[in-house]
Amino acid sequence: MVSCHSTDLTTKRGAKGDEDAANVKLETFDFTLNSTNMTHFAYGIAANVVAVLLYGSNFVPIKRIETGDGMFFQWVNCAAIWVVSMVGDLMLQSPKFHPFAMLGGVIWATGNITVVPIVKAVGLGLGVLIWGSSSLLMGWATSRFGLFGIAAQDVSRPILNYCGAGLCLLSGLIFFFVKTDVELHPNTESIPLLIDRRLNSGSYGPSSSEFWIDVVGPKTRRFIGCLLAVVSGLLYGSSFVPMLYIKTRSSCQDSVFHGASVYDLDYVYAQCSGIFVASTVYFAIYCAAMHNRPRIYSRVILPGLLSGMMWALATYCWFLANNYLSAVITFPIVSAGYGLVAALWGCLVFREVKGLTNCFIFLLASCVVLTGSLLSAISKL
Questions:
Q1: What's the CA gap between 264 and 47, in Å, rounded?
Q2: How many angstroms separate the CA atoms of 129 and 113, rounded?
């Protein structure tokens, strides 16, 4: 009896020990999983912050440099983007190149060439806010609802995600009421990104003919400018669709993209190649339209290269953040955040925002965009 009782007791103790060990392993697994999720979340937020800072400071190097009509600057800028992407491609050991991903770069470059008439029609500040808002909605909706054949991305707290995207959009509308004070000094170093060539053609740089947007009436010009800004933002927001489409089809056996990488950084080089090819074609068309007499400003070369490098590095950081957080989280943060950073440059450094009322509206919009970005970030947790 004693022997049998001892055996039963030992068996029960052994079973209890196995159960305790299993519970310990389960708790350890949960702790490790939560730690990994938090680590990925931290990496994603850090990459997002760097992307926002670089995107928002992208035009600072050429803020005081004469760029003429901007076409030559855009080509130099896109050349720098392509060079940085080549270096990144070598660092990533040259992953498979998908020509279809170049379509995203073509879409982005197409939206980018509308910047000149937009700024001529409604100004740089209002133009950025309009195309930023439409870009935000397009990028967020594409990732959230799975438009254009890509996979929809779910979040843990969808209500917070909707509220975050809505607040980011609201901030753009509030920024619309911030009046900027940008003085033009064509005879000094303080030259804006784009200037009215009709007023300054005889005082700085080579003369030029009027743009087509300059000869239309004020109301029509404003309508065209706003419409082009919306279209440009939609193109910006949809420029990542080809890459996401490839990733979605990578697991389909009957797809030509079967086995494609799901790592976003592997597609940066293809997209940047599309940007450079499209910008080169557009610049060649521009040169032909100008009868081989394009407006070229040599002082824009180095600042343009630096600006392109900043944009390319920001894109790498953004794509890295997508792997940790997903595009439905990062797109509202980046789209709203870089506008805030650019506004801070204009307010604190270039003194474009003056007056108590303007400063109050600017502060309100800043709080709204920060709240929206925070809600978008925590909706993933």
A1: 13
A2: 17
What are residue 180's DSSP bridge partners? 353
**106 with 331: CB under 8 angstroms?**
no
pLDDT band at 20 (very low <50, low <70, confident <90, very high): low
| Token code pair at residue 347 | 């307010």
Token representation of residue 252: 């389909």
Q: Is the pLDDT of residue 206 over 70?
A: no
Confidence (pTM): 0.74
Residue with tokens 């996401």: 244
Instruction: Return d(Cα 230, Cα 145) in angstroms, integer.
Output: 20
Please tell me whether residue 282 adopts helix, strand or coil conformation: helix
Q: Rounded to an integer, what distance in angstroms lies between the CA atom of residue 265 and that of residue 249?
A: 17
Ramachandran region, residue 227 (left: φ > 0; alpha: ψ -120 to 50; beta: rest)? alpha
Distance, CA of 377 to CA of 41 (rounded, Å): 9
Task: Scan for tokens 């009322």, then name that residue.
Answer: 357
Residue in the structure block whose two tokens are 């700085």? 204
DSSP notation for 289-353: HTTT-----GGGHHHHHHHHHHHHHHHHHHHHHHHHH-HHHHHHHHHHHHHHHHHHIIIIIS--B
Q: Kindly report the CA angle at 29 between 27 and 33, in degrees rounded to 5?
A: 120
The token duo for 43 is: 């990496």
Tokens of 276: 């450079």
Q: Could you give the CA distance from residue 148 to residue 241 in angstroms, rounded to a whole number?
A: 7
| Spatial contact of 138 and 327, defined as CB atoms under 8 Å apart | no
Helix (H, G, I), strand (E, B) or coil at 180: strand
d(Cα 283, Cα 294) in Å, to the nearest integer? 9
| Residue 225 near residue 117, CB atoms below 8 Å | yes
Query: Residues near 152 by Cβ (< 8 Å), separated by ≥ 6?
Result: 143, 144, 145, 146
Q: How many CB atoms lie within 10 A of CB 80?
A: 22
Residue 184 has pLDDT above 80, yes or no: no
